[in-house]
Specification:
Elements: E1 2-7, E2 14-20, E3 26-30, H1 33-41, H2 45-48, E4 55-60, E5 65-69, E6 74-78, E7 85-89, E8 95-99, E9 107-110, H3 120-124, E10 129-131, H4 152-167, E11 188-189
The chain binds zinc ion (2 copies).
One zinc ion (ZN) is lined by residues 8-10, 12-13, 89, 91-92, 94.
């Protein structure tokens, strides 16, 4: 397992992802309209999305993520009132991670925030799943084995990891939610329209 440095594009926000290996998380690429809308909201589609409109995310737990500098730059947006809490930095609009709520041990760290260029495949393993391909940019062929939707088998895989991590108490401490369960900053509701 390795420690992976976390850093926003301008360097004001830094942190560490602890105990990272291909087994301690799940790397996937999501092409869904919400992930694309998040990139658009940040106005950084070119930096965030791949050629097919996918976002490369490493799903791990909040307790493995430590923000060491620039916590005051963290912001949160929800694309619908009950949508994911999508975290980013105010300074340079770097996507940080997607979370569900305070009680679930789930944080999908967006690739831009991981300062592991060149080592990413070694640290995280290859992309395990490519999902929601029905929203992909149609002029570019999707990678082999891509799924049009989010297959139940992959949802069950993610769910099983969450149950195990919940038992291990890895939903906290969280850089995104206080011990009372409240988000560290008030989420902005942004209807993607
Ligand atoms: Zn920044
Ligand atoms: Zn998505």
């Amino acid at each position: 397992m390795v420690e992976v440095a976390l850093k926003c594009s301008c360097g004001q926000v830094e942190g560490i992802a602890h105990d990272i290996s291909p087994q301690t998380g799940l790397r996937l690429v999501c092409h869904c309209d919400d992930c694309q809308a998040f990139a658009k909201y940040l106005n950084r589609e070119d930096a965030i999305l791949d050629r097919c409109g996918g976002t490369d995310v490493f799903q791990t737990t909040p307790s493995q993520i430590e923000i060491t500098q620039g916590k005051d730059q963290l912001r949160c947006v929800r694309l619908k009132p009950k949508g994911l809490f999508r975290w980013y930095t105010d300074c340079c609009k770097t996507p940080v991670a997607n979370t569900i709520n305070a009680s679930l041990p789930f944080s999908g760290i967006v690739h831009n925030f991981m300062d592991d260029k060149g080592q990413r495949d070694n640290n995280l393993g290859p992309v395990r799943f490519s999902v929601m391909g029905k929203f992909a940019k149609s002029d570019v062929p999707l990678p082999k084995g891509s799924h049009a939707k989010f297959p139940l088998s992959i949802i069950m895989n993610i769910f099983a990891r969450m149950i195990k991590n919940k038992i291990l108490g890895r939903h906290k401490p969280s850089p995104f939610f206080g011990n009372d369960g409240a988000p560290v900053c008030e989420p902005i509701i942004h209807n993607k329209g």
